[in-house]
Queue: 4 jobs
Job 1
Amino acid sequence: MAQVVMKDLNKKYDEVHAVKDVNLHVRDKEFIVLVGPSGCGKSTTLRMVAGLEEITAGEIAIGDRVVNDLPPKDRDIAMVFQNYALYPHMTVYDNMAFGLKMRKFPKAEILKRVQDAAEILGIQELLKRKPRQLSGGQRQRVAVGRAIVRHPQVFLFDEPLSNLDAKLRVQMRVELKRLHDRLETTAIYVTHDQVEAMTLGDRVVVMKDGWVQQVGEPLELYGRPSNRFVAGFIGSPAMNFVDVGISEANGAVWIETQGLRLKAAADRTDRLRPYKGQKVTLGIRPEDIRLASGSDTPDRTFESVVEVVEPLGSEILLDMKIASAQMVARVEPTVRVKVHEPIKMAINTDRLHFFDLKSEAAI
Amino acid sequence: MRRRPLIVDLAVLACLVLYAVPFLWQLVTSFKPESELLHVPPLLPSRLTLAHYGVVFTRSAMPRALGNSLGVGALTTLLACALGVPAAYALATLRVPAAGALMLGIVASTAFPQIATVSPLYLVMRALGLRDTWAALVLADASFALPFVIWLMTRFMREVPRELSEAAALDGAGRWRTLAAIHLPLTAPGLASVALLAFLFAWNEFLFAFTFTATEASRTVPVALALFPGVFEVPWGDIAAASILASVPPVLIVIGLQRWLVRGLLAGALNE
């Protein structure tokens, strides 16, 4: 049983209010990811859980113990650092055994645990080496190994993959996920990479400027972002935004801007009607823009000019404009499009997102 | 890599010769027979003799002085490091109030010339009843060695990445354990250099040693050497032999520490 509960958590430095009223309930065995741009407070939050930063206000409980005043070593947690922080003068074995030695485990138990962890991570042959003789990926594994030998109640990961090259990062991501499925230990993972967040997290916490923006399962965040920031942060390429006017005619709600006139899907009309005569921000995922076919009615199409074609192999990205806003469409790799030629595109109007212009909250 | 110009090599060689000649001259003199000491040709002795070393060992205060110097040097080094290393660790890793001012004070205290403190220190030593003891020299020398031990070790300790302390804290190590298991091994090369400096300072220190000592019981090598000349003659050969003997222990220590004086132990700590 190791849930982590943060209650009205705050961190203030002299000038900076780094973490603001964070309330979070990390469930037992859950893999939760804190994600956000740099300076959003995600690392500070993690470090407060670890006990490496003092808590300005609020409360953190691990299991059923409030840990505010406990030193890191008594919190029964293990952390993997961004730069691994391996002890350079110790062998891989000693690096992994250090925490157990400090806790006065018997020698035989230490040996067994280190070997078990080394086997899980495939680093048995490296146990006698020093960190400087290891590659980046191997160091990463040792750092994870040092965390898992302790069988802690909670794993903390502080951007553990960001120092690896792209290919290795994808590989380690899968390994971490597999490891978590196997160990079933609560994990809190910090990253600025939304792809990592989406692929690893049972739930994802999006943060910005010290505030929690939204907490939810990955596809929930993607499909129903609660505000414009989350909508733009989750997903790559990012969601397209354009400011539009709302009007009502012929019993339907219309979304309009220069060169675009869309009929709102029936299930949105009620929520959009109060904005009649006002402007809102329209959000469209790149995959919801496609080439128009003959069956597409004019109330879901628009005309534009493709400015850039980005063939990625599995898909093609088309850059174009609606009104003055830049749009990216993600289309099938079989589509043949020429740059600078007029083109007719269609929009999946039942999958549009709307945000209040001022509060930026989802409508 | 570009080849170094020849002139640089020559300059280095010239400097080396300039430093080495007096030492070699002493070395030669220490083995010269008495009769050839004051004649320049021949430059090299016709035969080598150990007579001067025999005199130094059997009929001078040097053996006792060497023992005193080794003892005072070792204790000074030990005391300065035992106090200086934890201080440096604290200054480098903990949030010490007014750490900047403290460091400045430590540096400033090294600026006091010894001669300015010698008379008050003498009074203190006399009041403590420490005149003519090792303790007087160890205390005085350590008080001069301590600031640069703290100063230099703080710089070395600051190079140990903060994440290592944090990892150790999570692993369950307290402050002292972290110092012993992480910071000390990682700054060992630095500590070796610092300890060597402290030892050499105590070894070469003359003013305190001359002032606080009165008898052979506590006289160190520099004092013994200075008191060597007899009443009626200057025994150049014996002095040369004694100086050579005075140089041997530091040289041996440097050779012994050589492995530790090489830096680069921190490689592989972080992946950046």
Job 2
Amino acid sequence: MSQQERERRVHAVLQAARRLSDPRDPLGIEARRALPGATGLSGASVELSLVRHLETSVTSDDLGKLVTRAGSAPRVHVVLSANVFTGVVRAVALAVAAAPSVMVRPSSREAVLAPLLLRAITELGKEARFELIPTLEPAPGDHVHVYGRLETIAAIRVGCPADVTVRGHGPGFGIAVVDGATSEAALLAESLSWDIVPFDQRGCLSPRLAFVEGSRDDAERFASRLAVELDQREKEVPRGALSEEERRDRSLYRRTLQAVGQCHDGVASTVGLDLDPRAMFLPPTGRHLHVVRVASADEMERLLVPYRGAITCIGVTEKSSLAARFATLLPGARILPIGNMQRPPLDGPVDLREMV
Amino acid sequence: MNRDREERAELHARVRAFIDASEKGETPAESFDALGLAIARHQAEHVPAYRRLVAHRNEHPRDAASVRELPAVPTDAFRLTRIAAHPPSDDAALFRTSGTMSGTPGEHALSTTATYQAAALAWGRWALFFDAPAAMTAIALTPPRAHPLGNSSLHFMIQLFATEFARAVRYLQPWPDRLVDAAEFVEACATASRAAEPVIVMGASFAFVQVLDALGDERLALPEGSRIMHTGGFKGRSREVAPDELLSRMATTFAIPESAVVGEYGMTELSSQLYEGTLRAARGLPAPSARHGVFVAPPWLHVVAVDADKLRPVSEGEIGILRFEDLANVDSALVVQTADRGRCRGSTVELLGRLAGAPPRGCSLAVEELMGRP
């Protein structure tokens, strides 16, 4: 395929996605009806994701990068994960940019958006059609894009013939860094809350940890403000149901932070604050953020060591002096403004760690 | 400071008296709740983390009528902060968790090991050494405590048992690429068998898996009266093996009855342990359970399953996550909350696996997956 053809195919996918994003389009209406049950997200959360987080356009610069990062293969097989249902669009866009023939195996738990996207593409008469498949049968030379758990990726890698390229997009999480902008704590807290809320924090870009570089008062102010903002978000975009495992982990996280530091128990969310961190704690998914106060960037680096390979995204302030340092420390992580951590440019896979 | 020390020492002495009376089948001089609440009041005053917890929850021990009403400290807290009523300079032991999940190990500081030892020996005697074979040989799939890895509470306990109950002991040192060298293990078993004395082999379950995998179909028949004590999960350090399969392979390889394979359940954050009552029951001695997978708690350790949302006790026999009320945890946290699932009946705990049908968490990372990445 030529560069132009690849780009045309990506545009076709995005045009179809616009139909799903549109609340007046029959396919958009169908998506809104089916997705809450399939994902466990609230209706408002599904709406937010479809309108704000589903990719529907791309700049020419980003498209060029996406096509380059997609690579080239005769056929691409895509194995989708659940929860971040909007990821289907980017996954298919990458696949159609790489190969003239694309096969998609939807998640067994969320099998709504991929068929709707296919219908939208088909109804638009576009050439970027793909095939929905129940099982994976790659042929030599094919590429397989796997989104999901490490065990899933490993199992598929083992099961594929040696001359099949498997590109794994595994789990991860985001961190936010608040430095040099303490006067804007309220604004930053509001922005960060909009990064935490989508997909009930089950996305690989979802922030789970926040570092406040500053005084203890700065950290306390930011944590309490964030708790207020998350409570406000709960009124606007209610969280969906949690699994028993998530509920258990929330209870344990809350109890742990009540002992270790400070804990803001919100209606649905939790903001934990550790002012004297000995180690990091990864809170459970479901809108819970662990905030630590650090005195220096060196201390932050020390705390991050065990988590380095798992960080997909770093949210920073406009005035952050640490962005360059993170680019070196975590070369695979995206560096994005706080408030836009869940809206990375459509310039390749969401998770760029495998590109490093 | 001296008053604090005296108070702590007095509490330790009272707990040891409780353990001693329980072991003798006597009624302790004070009730579990009376002693537990005294310990909790001490901890609310001297353990900063517990002070914060009871203040946040407005659940001070002075207002509680029983230990069951007290808030529990989750095991994760032991990794994030020091949970101790005494300063580091007074540490007599500092046990560390393996720390494999997130890099930083949890720590359990003790101001004295006397209470830990009393609890471990009393309940070890109940489950493993009740028949007190006069000449027993111990094989430990762990290094002695002087080893750099020797700050594990399991290593401490195994060494304690070997010292107290065995005539001879052989510690098997870990190698850079494996926990136990199979040839060294075979030689240790052969030496012990030549003495024709009962052998006790003690170690982590994952160490046994490595040994059994290395041995393949080889049989190492141990002398009559021999037994095995194994503990813990696999923690990514060996392949996962179903409990029934591990039990069967141990019994077959060492030519001992399955009842002589005794599982222990303990954790760094506790000072007391639980055991399967299989060996006792097989010898006709009373035991609340004779089943594998069901662990019996000593009288100074109460275990209750709690619900996932409020961490409140569920009805006896219902499944929940396990909360431990350990009188021997004088220096740290009397009540410890774990994420382990189980079912409690009387003094027994049936350990259960991961939540059935629990969905994966999407692409957001679970703590358990952390170590899977480079």
Job 3
Amino acid sequence: MIHFIYADALSDHPVLQRTMFTDRARQFSERLKWSVRVDDDGFERDEYDDMNPLYVIAEANGRHSGSMRFLPTTGPIMVNDHFSHLAGDVRISSPLIWECTRFCVAPDAPRTTSAALMLAAAELGRRAYLSHSVAVFDARMVRVYRRMGWAPDILGSDGTGRDRISVGLWAFDEAPVAALAAQAGVEPARASDWYRTSFQKPKAALAG
Amino acid sequence: MGYQEVQTKLPSVLESLQQVKTFDGLQRLVEDLRELYGVEHLIYHSVNSAGTPYAALTYDLDWVDHYLEEDFGRIDPVVLGCYQRFQPVDWKDLDWTGKSARNFMLEARDAGVGNQGFSIPIRGPSGQFALFTVNHRCDDVEWAKFTTHNVRDFLLISHYINQKALEIERGTDMVEDQVLSPRELDALTMLGMGKSRANAADSLQISEHTLRVYIESARFKLGAANTTHAVALALTRGKIIV
């Protein structure tokens, strides 16, 4: 099950909220040793979490099993604020491009989690009429993306070993939806259900 | 009005938007846009970081006054469903089930608000928020056809209107003259020279995707409708020479 949740609605899902931020601390601070802040609650949070981003959160056994974070590039984003030197010094800004950061997979997550998240991202791109996503990610994830059949175009990378961070681009019109769904172990139409469940309210007689 | 016709008009709409210097001009442009797309209403509403509201819209002014007097923003499902968010929303997907929402909807209908709508929340620089709505009166089939054809146009138009409103508010041309980076200028120059995307990407030693994103980014900064328009604007403004 995948949820699309804005930050201001995260408190409606207290377990997902807590486990997402602690899983992020484990992945980005403990495992990858990125210089990220972990607060007293053990949450890895940064200033972009305070800008009401949209989280795509995978849930397994009632807790967070993986997630990503989206922000529109028309507002403040991490790539423009901190990594533009990795994006050809271009300040990326367009209503058709969103930034995706903090791709996280919990240590005990089902093997299908990454593919399910990518499938959900493709659905989000379609529903929001986006052309591209620009992302900041752990450079070693590239082979995972490649294996899933949806590899980013790398604009630039920085650092070495576990510190290595890349900025890359995904084109939504190239999302291999059927292949991602197969790897996620779901029907392709399932992504549409995830979106509807998250965003669409019970039908009322609006048009009538 | 056919989609093709509207498509070819988009560059000229954006050109007129570039010429707008005042809030009155923006209001007239929104009225012209309504004619162009043949819809019932268009509404642009903005709240800047200081909390000052501004609107350019085609609703009946009595309805606007009534809305403000009754403080309908507290119960309006469109406001509740879009505030501080950023994905476009069809009104059908909002929650109209509550009693106050349903009563609000009936009043809105009486005031000439159409039964269909989609709203585009806009996140501007430094915490600024705006909402652009296209409202129409038609059945679901026609509406689905209209939105499929026009949402991307309106995504662009709404953001350009927002940039223009910010620019007028600040009284500067900062937004219009957003600086293009050397990579963006290179990309536009290559296309201006008549190179294909593949060729241009090759010459710049970047992938075609990267080129597309640089062009998209430049297009938005220039306020252009499409790639050709972006190259034309960059040329006429002397940003590139081919």
Job 4
Amino acid sequence: MSNDVDNSRRKFIAAGVAGTAGLVLAPGVTLLDMANARPAGEAASNAKRWGMLIDSTKCVTGCNDCVSACGKENGFGSTGHPETDAQWIRKIELKEVKSGKTHSLPMMCQHCAQPPCVDVCPTGASFKRADGIVLVDRHICIGCRYCMMACPYKARSFVHEEHHDQNPDVPRGKGCVEACTLCVQRIDKDLQPACVEACSAGNHGAMMFGDLNDPNSEISKRIATYATTQVRPDLALNTGVRYQGI
Amino acid sequence: MINPAKWRSVLGWLAAALSALLLAGVTPATAHDEHGEHKLIAKGDKCVRDDDYMRRNHMKILMHQRDETMHKGIRGSQDSLKNCIECHVNPKTNSVASSKEDFCMGCHSYAGVKLDCFECHSSKPKAVAGGMHPTVMPEQRSSEGADKQSSQSGKMPLQMQAKQASLNMGEGVK
Amino acid sequence: MNDVFSKNKDGAFFFVLGLIGLVVLAGLGAAYYMEEHGHVVTGMTNQIVWGLPHVFALFLIVAASGVLNVASIGSVFGKPVYKARAPLSGLLAIAMLAGGLMVLMLDLGRSDRLIIAMTYLNLKSVFALNVFLYTVFFSVVALYLWTMMDRKMHAYSRYVGFAAFIWRLALTTGTGAIFGFLVARQAYGTALLAPMFIIMSFSFGLAVFMIAQAVMYRWNDLTLDEVILRRLKNLLAVFVAAVLYFTAVYHMTNLYFAKQLDFERFILLDGGIYTMLFWVGQVFVGGVLPLFLLFTARKSGPVLVASALIILGGFFQLYVFLIGGQAFPLNLFPGMEQSSSFFDGVIHPYSPSLPEFLLGMGGIAAAALITVIAAKVLNFMPDDKHHSVSH
């Protein structure tokens, strides 16, 4: 065997490994999460149910990391009209009336399993994807805002002004209703929602994202261990977002 | 009383007008680039379908694909709008619909059909440098090999950042 | 009967038509302005998502189904006095529904997608159901008009009248259900809203009919027979009293629930403009005062004033209902004070803008336009020739 043949084989193997590693690791997923990736051409399925767990005891009044990250990722910010600006996530400051105890938490679309917004949409633009994410199909949204009336969490925003230079991954425009998409453009690439990533990057550790249908996922294990609540549980909407410490 | 001669002439005119209309519809609209200032801006040598098919049916492909992506979550198709923009972007304006010089707007302004897509969709391609790339690259372009190279180097810092994020989260261990 | 108009009447007619047309144009212009710049030019926000145009549209739609009541009493219950008025009532129903729907459709964020609204229907949505109910209503009432005005079709008017009666009950129930099916908000989400809307439609519809009828009589220099007037006004008084009853039941039930107390305090006590509009506008101007006028009236003057007050009170009632209901914030965390950058936990302010008002007025004008043109072209004048003054 000449050295040339050995070297070329080694080069080939090295290139192959590097290529595969690059493909796998590059989108920001650890090797162990490779199993979660949905290949191109495959539809979302109800085998997964995406959800979030928010530990409000770790939320701090004044911290807006999740809110800024959401705006940056999805391409919106303040236009100077706070009453008509879209807000997909916001920090709610809570104060118990009797005791005065305060705490804060982020509130966004709760991705209910029985979403009132989906029931009321006349065109079916507001819909629930197979893996549990509630979305607005802006191709068929007529902007009637009935879903905004129906949502118990005030999660939806109406786009009141023209927008330009949208994020190509997040089309949004005047006249349609929108809400938190759980960063569907990111989770389809096996990334975390922007808010969750920002919370972790800031070392707050208040937000967790994962597959509620998988009993071995971190989020499911937590929900099975600690007491968690849904907001407005009396409505029995079976939300995908749960909270600790309310 | 209308006399037969007059009837015949009226019918004759009607027939002529009707056939003219029909012919106009039947003649394939070979989008000659002489119409207006429209230039066939494209990368590579072929589109995802035949030129003639695309001229008549690109809207059907787009409509079908949007439902697949939106409702079923199917990503990475070669029929996606983003993929169209990648090839058809005008290098001068970095857009497909910002002016009559651009690909989409060129034909649509000539045909007088209002474009609704870019009210919501960005008409510009995604920024490539340091940007997130999908797990699987869908493009069928010949420059695929070159892309992989550049994407590898661009991804390294993100990989480290994301790894730290997932470590913090303690999530995703299977 | 039609060619009663003399030459100068014709001039006056075209002048009135022109005025109404101008208002319609103003409404269309306002809609274009809103469409072009986005809803940021209106007073509607992410907190008050349905504003003044919806108040106008809701009134027109509710009154449209109610005005058909006059015809229903004629065809379904066989009262000849009402039967004579049925064609006018049918015309007003179509005209007002068209006006109300025009306002609703032009206020949409994407009005250009109306075809989508008609082809993609989510059958679980009461909105989609309403689209179906409205379109069929137009056809049924048009058919009804045909059976009444075409001598050959007279035999069928009873059956079509019955169908129209049932259909409009379904339609108003659907309109009330738009709010009744909303579980989230404290002002809505009650089954009471469907029958309440039906009673409101009776009251508003008859009031509109009285005014429209009076205008027609005046224009043709005729006077309404006093006996007919007395029966109509007594019926109107019953309806107004019924609306007051439903209002009382709605609020008293809410007051019984601890979780609704904050909302009731807002509407009944310290809601500022909403409290004032409720007590002064809805209860007094729209209820108590017209009742007094109707029970003590001997001539047509006070009856018409009462009808106008009922209409005004109806607008106030719908304003408090629709906008007051949205102004009161959603209570995500009962027992806690909430605040955020997205206006949680605070009363949401709303100031109607000019485009919204113009659009609403445009809807009313569109209804008037249809009525005026149809009344000019066809015979909608109530035919009391066969009515003998009964005692």
